[in-house]
Write a structure and sequence with these properties.
Rossmann fold; alpha/beta; binds S-adenosylmethionine; about 35% helix
């Protein structure tokens, strides 16, 4: 893929995220404000908190890539992280994150940037690169992404990924009107992106037809692992979980069908 193709995808996704953020804000901003006014509030699941504590978060400099409205990074700060910087391509998401952090007096820096174009001044500054639900699928080139992520780490730093499992991409999304019929609806191997208009309001659940087009890439587990391996990141932990962290597979999770819906991976930059 050429860099201009990559930018065509990411720029279109920027517009799609700018369009949906006001819908998310209408549905959740007031609640999020109230939650983060509580001292020490943390919006992460227990499994993830346990793993973060195991690798050591207190006093560490953390960068969150694809940070959206910043609630996860603010949670990491409340758990004891030191310098916290979040990057997201959406102007609207970064504005919301910056404003809420200021209102709740949580010291995080939020920067609007494509993850492929983060200013080199941030390189070698972080102990942990943090990646959470619904980031990797927006990224057209994983190998290049992990190269950029790795450059942000100081020697010995960690990449911490808590993501939607690639297998979940094959399953039907929740249906408000009827129970989902659990079956495979999409291929595992898919080189072309999913092209969609709308459907990003997983917070307020409103339906809309977008004027923008969004591109989502179904990366396989081997794409992810090879992206890390090719960038010399050493995998120190990998666990698969039946927990739905996508907000789209609750019904599959509740069916307790023994299907992995999320994973946690920790890799180290050996320097
Ligand atoms: C599903 S949201 C992440 C949600 C987040 N885990 C949370 O729970 O708040 C995905 C985010 O990735 C961002 N994003 C997509 N492509 C990006 C890119 N190329 N560079 C930076 N951010 C990007 C979007 O703007 C969006 O805010």
């Amino acid at each position: 893929m050429t860099y201009s193709d990559l930018k065509r995808y990411t720029e279109s996704n920027r517009l799609a995220w700018n369009e949906v953020m006001p819908l998310h804000q209408r549905a959740a901003s007031e609640t999020l404000d109230k939650l983060f006014f509580q001292a020490g509030y943390v919006r992460l699941d227990d499994k993830e908190i346990g793993m973060l504590q195991q690798v050591g978060l207190k006093g560490k400099n953390v960068v969150h890539l694809c940070c959206n409205n910043g609630t996860e990074l603010m949670s990491l700060k409340n758990l004891g992280a030191a310098d916290c910087v979040g990057f997201d391509i959406s102007d609207q998401a970064i504005q919301e994150a910056s404003q809420r952090a200021a209102r709740s007096r949580i010291n995080c820096q939020f920067v609007r940037s494509d993850v492929y174009e983060i200013d080199r001044a941030f390189n070698n500054r972080f102990d942990i690169v943090y990646i959470s639900a619904g980031c990797l699928g927006w990224l057209p080139d994983l190998e290049l992404f992990f190269e950029k992520a790795s450059a942000l780490l100081r020697q010995g730093g960690l990449i911490f990924i808590h993501e939607i499992h690639p297998l979940a991409e094959m399953l039907p999304f929740d249906d408000d009107k009827q129970p989902v019929n659990l079956r495979i609806v999409e291929p595992y191997f898919k080189t072309e992106p999913y092209i969609d208009q709308g459907g990003l309001d997983y917070v307020g659940h409103s339906e809309y037809i977008s004027t923008t087009t969004q591109y989502w890439f179904a990366h396989t587990l081997s794409d992810i692992l090879m992206g890390l391996i090719k960038n010399h990141l050493l995998i120190e932990h990998f666990s698969e979980h039946e927990t739905d962290i996508s907000s789209g597979h609750r019904q599959v999770e509740e069916a307790k069908a023994g299907i992995p819906l999320s994973y946690i991976l920790v890799g180290r930059n050996p320097g």
